[in-house]
UniProtKB/TrEMBL annotation:
Protein name: Solute carrier family 40 member
InterPro entries documented for this protein: Ferroportin-1 (IPR009716), MFS_trans_sf (IPR036259)
Compositionally biased intervals (Basic and acidic residues): 15-31, 544-559
Described purpose of this protein according to its UniProt entry: May be involved in iron transport and iron homeostasis.
Organism: Palpitomonas bilix
Residues that span the membrane, as ranges: 37-57, 115-136, 165-194, 215-232, 238-265, 300-319, 339-360, 372-396, 416-438, 459-482, 488-510
Amino acid sequence: MQSADSPACAAPVVEVDKKERREEEDGRKQAEKTKTVLGLTQIEAVILSAHTIVRFFLQSSDFAVPVLLATLDPSSLLAPALFGLCTRAAKFLLSPSLGAWMDRRTRKQGLRVGLLMQVVGSVTACLSFLTLALFLPDTSETGAGQEGEGGVGGSGMLFSTPTTAMASVFLLIGGSIDALGNVVITVAIECDWVTLLVPKPRLPTVNAWFQRMDLAMEIAGPAAVGAAIAVATTRTAIAGVIVAVYVCTVVSLVFQYAVMSRLLVKFPSLMKRKVDEKEKSKNPLHGFVKGWTILLHHKGGVWIVVGAMVMIWITVLSPHNVLLTAYLTEQGMEAWSLAIFRGVGAGFGVASTIMAPLLIKKMQPDRSSLLFLWSESCILLLSIPCFLIATSPFMLEKMGIDETINATTAFAFPPQAPLATAMALIFLLFLILARFGVYGFSVSQRVILQELTSEATRLQVFGAEKSLTSLASLLVFLAGVILNDTTLFTPLIYVSTGAVFVGAILISVWRLRYGAYYASLTAGAHDEDKELKGVEEEDEAEKDGEREGDGEAGKEASV
């Protein structure tokens, strides 16, 4: 008696899989014939559109939460700090377990759980905000910074009464659940679904579009919410804006689920996942351990590629970094100057995502990743002397500005010190130019991981990566809390530049050690695509022959 794994039993299954694959490839080929205005196929445009709508409202809520917390309790930074700490800690601790759990379930189950987590988290946070807005005393009447109800003042009014304290705790819980649900949806769609639905030669282009739209929504979402909050003059009106944002977020999530569910129906192979039934019953702790184990022992040096990405997250040298923004503000940089700096940085980031796929296509992802990361390292290294010259005591003394004037540093661009002002501007320009390497490497690195990982381990690897990048941002956040003096900002610049150099060294070591393996792996994938394309051409030739035969038979019949 033959086993289920024997060739005789496996042959019919293979034939069925090939037939389904050909049918799905015919569907993809038909979709690729109809291009959208932006050069994307229908499938790519649908996935990207749903993702962009959700990302707009998620970025809006991320911006609105600290604004409302500061409005509710301007006397303390405790609540915003705890909110950021809890969400990042949750992603660090649970992302590997979520990735392992998703690899043991069908894609539809993962989609449902991610949607449910984000809906529950959004509703919980929304109700918590409403409770805080109703029960907290209005600081506009008592005066910001004075002791409110409960007599806590600077220690945090959000925890002054049992009701507000409970609402604050539920806000932290809801925000953490929402963040974890976002990890599930993001990893599932961007790292798994796209890999299966998009042809390999188009992966750099589609990944770049995801990066581009994420960056665009990072600007558009906060801008829209900021305008709405500016119009809302009262605390109740601001709370109404937050509620509206959360409601729209839930609606957009349901829309995204509907879109992805239709794709599941259109492409039945997405419903199938190779799942080990023994692994299916393991507990979450096992998933956490296995996620790290798979990352460290995966073929192709995956842990090195992930480590390089983690290094570029250990930085304060980004136009959108909170610590850099706070430092420049304290050093006298005007709000309009900061807005221009952030806007130009975002615009250059979008431009880099347009150029990155072209370089990746010409140089391949492994070589282009070296170019992107080493270029960023060299640019940041050049920025350090500019920063030191602009902020040196000698330059500050040469400015000769009265201490009573706010503009006491080069970042206020004083006309009395043209050299220091020039160095400060060049420093900021270097940070903007470094965005090219950051976003270019992000696109290359994702393509490399998508090609190195298999369907059975992809989500666990990307889940572990999300965990490590969350840890990196958490460490930067904690460093800013500890080194809160502006005179200690220079060591943070050294650490940020050094971390990028470590990432460049890691990706160089990976290419030297695993470059041949990656080349052979991608060559096999391209050969498989060519084989499938040859089969499709043979089918087309057979169809053409049948049409010609039918045409000749028709002519004979008419004669």
